Fold this sequence. Notes:
Layout: H1 4-14, H2 17-28, H3 32-35, H4 44-57, H5 59-62, H6 65-69, H7 86-104, H8 112-126, H9 129-160, H10 165-182, H11 190-199, H12 216-237, H13 278-286, H14 290-306, H15 312-352
Amino acid sequence: MVSRMAVTQAIRAETTGDEQMDLLIFAALMPETQLAVLQEADTNKFIVDFVRGLKAAGVTAAAGSTAAAEPTHLPSTGFASAVGHPSILITSLAAYSMITYDIFGPTSLHVLQPVDQAFHHAVQASIDPELRRHLFGEVLSNWWIMAGSLGWIFTTATALSRYNPLAWQACALGWALWIFGVGPIEHDPALMEFLKTTFDRVRPSPVRRTPSFPSGHSAAAVLVVGALLFVLLPVVYGRRPAAGGRDAAAQGGGPDGAGGDNGGLGTVGGGAAGSHHPVLQAFYSVQGSWSLWALSALTTMLGRVGFDAHWLSDTLAGTALSVALVSGLANATERLSAAASSSSPSSSSGRAGL
């Protein structure tokens, strides 16, 4: 039997506008006996045509008092991300604060200073200047930022092409962090400019004359990749469909916008109706990947230290700062999703009474 949530996902994939809303409300009230007719192998179009036929025949009226007794609202499952847990936000902010105090605190032990110096001397002694400039300065420092930026642009374009209010809100918050926080733009955004100007730390070598702390490249890479993996992709494209026909909404998407659309790349659904589009499958495979996020951070840190443009502690601080920003973005998106979910019953009831 196809789950009720799978039916709503099929409706969202095949319909738009007022018809979509009407069918979603109808599906929320469908008797279980009618759901039992549908099989996991049925396509989205078959499911939607089936629901249309039931609605035209007034099947819910035949369900009697059982259907009438059920609450008139759409099923919804909110967005949730592990990185949005308050402990991650607090820990990353604490790490940034400790690094900052160790470097600039008048009474600190300056534990990181000898480590910074050791890495600086090793780079100067063992890496050819041309290799530093091309491999470390151009490739390793920028690869993840460029790849993540393309992901942001593609994902945002997909969000804007569909009716997905939560995705719109998440993208807007993300771009605000990009533009005003630590995003990769020609000049440092407001937050990064403020921090660098305030601390005014000299770089390990005169590659650039701007202040060194914290590392803008490290902060940008962690923000761009982390927000993409843990917030934007799950919200815009939904979660990977679970085995056994469970639909993507059960893992974080739903009709209130939390990953309830696939951006036209395929059908997000369960079983045989699941999407096999290679791009969508790639998006599913990297969502919430801590290892990929860590790899992007370490690669960028290596690039900045190997280029001798930053002290190691600069990159550690930039990384910690952006982990906190990504955690805050995920937490804010969770709250927006929860607010949308809590308002769904009342809005759906009002629609049903028209």
